[in-house]
Design goal:
With about 60 residues, the protein is mainly α. The protein has 2 helices and no strands. It has a single domain, classed as Vanillyl-alcohol Oxidase, Chain A, domain 4. It is globular and about 30 Å long.
């Protein structure tokens, strides 16, 4: 996701941390804007095989 790739994905990590604080159960708009709740983050690339493989290898985009 290009919008969150700057500076080692700091914006995405900040938004995920903020979402976890505001919505700990992950029920408010899960996945909207590319920000997933903590319990679904590992499944965010389920439809993209290349990214799923990268996640398995421990590499981030």
């Amino acid at each position: 996701m290009g919008a969150y790739s700057y500076n080692n994905h700091i914006l995405r990590r900040f938004n995920e941390q903020l979402k976890d604080c505001i919505d700990p159960n992950g029920i408010l708009a899960p996945g909207r804007g590319g920000i997933w709740p903590k319990n679904l983050r590992d499944e965010r690339f389920v439809n993209n095989k290349r990214d799923a493989l990268r996640m398995k290898e421990g590499k981030e985009k």
